[in-house]
Amino acid sequence: MNLLNSFSFELPTKIEYGIGAVERLAEIIKALNAESLLVVTDKGIRNSGLLERISNLLDANKLAHNIFDNVEPNPKDYNVQEGAEMAKRLNPDCLVTVGGGSPIDCAKAIAVVARQGGAARDYVGPDKIGGDVLPLIAIPTTAGTGSEVTFSSVITDSKEKYKFSIKDSKIAPKVALVDPEMTLTMPPGLTAATGMDALTHAIEGFTANAAEPIADSAALYAIELITAYLRAAVSDGSNLEARAGMLLGSVLAGIAFSHSDVAAVHCVAEALGGKYDAAHGVCNAVVLPAVMEYNLDYCKDRYARIAAAMGLSYENVEEGARQAVKAVQKLASDVHLPEFGSLGVQEKDFEELALNSFKNGSNIDNPRPMTEEDYLNLFRVLSG
Ligand SMILES: [Fe+2]
After folding, report:
1. 188-383 maps to which CATH number?
2. Other C-beta atoms lying within 10 Å of the C-beta of residue 213
3. CA dist 21 to 14, 122, 178, Å?
4. What SS3 class is residue 137?
C-alpha cells in the first residue's frame, strides 16, 4: 500500500456480535420501526430447528411474520422472483434472513425486486438500483459467506447456467446479527467448505488489485482466526470458541473482500457453481492452491504476510510466499475437502467455463492477469 493513495471506506451494516445475540432480534426489529416481517430462508434451516428458534422469538414479541423458505443452494433467479412476488403481496416493513450465503444473497435481491420491480438480472452493473430497497436483517448460520456484511448478491441465471452479481451498498443488510450459537448445528463437511470460502475471501481480498488498507487489516485478522479455528470447528462442532473464531473470521473476511474484491478463484468457483450447481466453498477450496501458485510471482510480499498471519516463520519473502501456498493446501486437506475430480467437471465444458470465468467482473482484480486461455490452462491443470 502506498500511503499516499486515497481510498474511501463505507460499512452500512451495524454488526451485533455475541453468544446468544439472536435473542435481541425483536429489539433490533423495533429499532427499525418494523412491525410486519418476511423471513427468507431455506429448507435446511427449517429442518435444523434454527427457523423455529427465530419464529418463536418473533411470536413471543408479537411480531407478525410470514416465511419464504424456497431458497435453493446457489440461489436461482426464479427463487428471487418467487420471494419478491410474496413480498409484494404481503408488503412487509422488513426482511429477516436466516441461513448461509444462499438465503442471505437471495434476500438481498428480493429486497430490490420487491420494491423496484423487474428481475434480479436488471440490477447488474453500477448504479442500477435507483430507489429504496426493503431493509434487511441478516442472521448467518454458516461461517463462510460474509454476506451479512457485504454489498453483493450472487444469483444463478437458471437458463444460461452462470452466476451474476448485484453489487451495491444499498443491498447491504441494515443489521447483521452475528451469533456463534447459530452455527453450532453445521455438519463437518459444510463447516469445512464454508470455512475455506471465508479463507478464500480473506486471501483474495488481501491480494486483489483493488486492495485497500482497512480491508487489508480485516483480511489478515480473518486469516489468523480461520487458521487457528477451522480444524477445531470441523473436528468438534460443539466447540463454541472455535465456532466463534470462525464466525468472526468470516465476518472480517466479508468486510475485506467487499471493500477490495475477490479474484480468479471466485471467477472459477462461480463458473463451476453456475454450471454444475456445485457447493461454492468446495469449488473455492479445490481451486485456491492452484491459483495461488499461478499468482505467486506477482504478490510474493503479500503471500509472505499471509504466511505470517498463519503463524509461520520464514527466512525470506520467497520462502514465506511458498509456505503460504503449502499451508493453504494442507489446511484444505486436513479438513477433508474433496479433490477437483469430485466435482464431475467435464472436459467438453472447459471452454464455456473458461469464458465465464474470464467474463466475471472480478477477473480484473486478480494480481496476475488471466486471459481466457489462462483459465483454460488452469482447468487442464486442475483436472490433470
Ligand atoms: Fe465466496
Report:
1. 1.20.1090.10
2. 14
3. 13, 36, 7
4. strand
Rounded to two decimals, the pTM is: 0.96
Ligand 1 center to residue 63 CA distance, Å?
Answer: 33
As a whole number of angstroms, the distance between CA 19 and CA 316 comes to: 41
Sign of CA dihedral 58, 63, 69, 72: negative
The string of pLDDT tens digits covering residues 175-213 is 999 999 999 999 999 999 999 999 999 999 999 999 999
The top-level CATH class assigned to 14-183 is alpha beta
Q: How far is the CA of 257 from the centre of ligand 1 (A)?
A: 9
Residue 352 confidence (pLDDT): 96
The answer to whether the CB of 141 falls within 8 A of the CB of 53 is: no
Q: Give the tens place of pLDDT for each residue, 110-123.
A: 999 999 999 999 99
Q: Which residue has the cell 448461509?
A: 100
Distance 144 CA to ligand 1 centre (A): 7
Closest CA to 202 of 246, 169, 138: 246
The rounded distance, in Å, linking the Cα atoms of 37 and 58 is 9
Domain ranges for the chain: 14-183, 188-383
Angle (nearest 5°) at CA 236 between 234 and 237 = 75
Q: Is the pLDDT of residue 132 over 70?
A: yes
Contacts of 34 (CB under 8 A, 6+ apart): 92, 93, 94, 135
For ligand 1, the distance from its centroid to the CA atom of residue 132, given in whole angstroms, is 26
Neighbours of ion ligand 1 (CB under 5 A): 197
How far, in Å, from the CA of 197 to the mean position of ligand 1? 5
Average pLDDT over residues 165-173: 96
